[in-house]
Batch of 2 targets.
Target 1
Amino acid sequence: MLPTENRLRRREDFATAVRRGRRAGRPLLVVHCRSGSTDPHAAGECVPPTRAGFVVSKAVGIAVVRNKVKRRLRHLLRDRLDRLPAGSLVVVRALPGAGTADHDELARDLDAALERLLGGAPRGSNPTGDATGSGRAADPRNPGRGPGGSAQ
């Protein structure tokens, strides 16, 4: 179970995380994260805790399946809260395939999404460093030609 101080409950907080946060999609789930936001509801100047919420629609399955997916996601995220910046708002939205996925598949997708949000390569980035994004270098014999050797 997620501790009380780490639960996302207000509609406004869900909306903030989804609309103003970053998003990482995987085949089984989508994670929205608004890093380091301040909590307008918190008293004092203390750093608010990371809070998480879950969205599991009827497309995932019947109520028993949806509740099982929520329990699994809560358990998985509870173990990963320390990796998230303090004050973050996190919303995990389960996609239809999550209902038939096992615990390990959900863990893999959650880890991959969090890695992308917290320090992985941004979407559309080119880790190979070439200008074309194809993974092949331009033809060094003919600088005016691209990776296929044909004129562009």
Target 2
Amino acid sequence: MSPRLSLAYLAFILLCLLAASSAPTPLYPLYQQAWGFSPAMLTLIFGIYALSLLLALLTVGKLSDHLGRRPVIAVALVLEGLAMGLFLQAQNVAWLIAARVLQGFATGMATSALGAAMVDRDKTQGPLLNSVAPLLGMAAGALGCSVLVVYGPWPLRLVYALMAVLFVVQLALLPWLSESVSRAPGALASLVPALQVPQQARAALWQVLPVDIACWALGGFFLSLAPSLVSAATGLASHLLPGALVATLTVAGALAIYRLRQHNPAWVLRFGTLMLAFGVVLLLLAVHTGQAALFFVATLIAGVGFGSSFSGAVRSVIPLAHAHERAALMSAFYVLSYLAFCVPALLAGLLVKRFGLVVTSDGYATLLLVLCMLSALAMWRASDSARSNA
């Protein structure tokens, strides 16, 4: 494959993996109706995926720095295909949990290898695609599945069958992808769980961490409890609602990343932090007024903040690593991001039972606003320090 075609192919795999990860979101209400589980169980099913993904990032996330990108991507695609098979055969909650565990591990295994492979090929377009592809993937999976539920046959099966076919095709094309790094010793040692952040990237990572946590925690909320919250607050109960909400958030994020790709990463990060905070405030207002239109406006603004802050974070940190450090840094970055993705949502699912959706959402939003303020403070200090040293 040519370098340009290789980038497109790698980005498409990443997009499909994230599409598969968000596809169950519109199906959760149907699973709840069929099997009668609670909101806490719903967030467990969601969270177990992210925890399994974290396990993969901590263990095999660095493996492609030693074995090469292609072997790791190949194994991940096989595991993802098997996960689609489990979803297709699911008969109860236990099947869903098993499928999400396997899916999470496959996605975590592939994420750092794919991200590093894209940066290997292009240090400018690689980080951009690393930011855009996951958001477009989550939008495509959630909205596409919602449409299939409303208009297609076999609502609990069709999306997984289509995704399985895509993963088989991608695996068949993999031999035409050129390897971008040579083999290096230390493969077994790399399996020991550890976060490896190169010395030259540590200060930048600490600076972007609060807002990165905030944007991924918001994403976790939207893929788990937000559809239930909107239905409770507005009375809407359409099967298209979960997918439309996730798509609004993630497409707005992807568009923001693309439109701001030429801007300085530090500026993009500041802009994203501001928009994320503004969107969260509007979401709180929407919850307490019950206005469906305001929910989508708030989600749109929060999505712009999500995408731009995530893009600013990736562009500020990942290019600082050398070639054989890149997958390890991608792995560490995604570990921290996915911890933010699942842990707050899991805690929220437990708190809903005691305090209700609205009170829990108020606390969740307050936490996000505090993180945005911490990030703004860190950026202000870094800027002030840079001026002092100039």
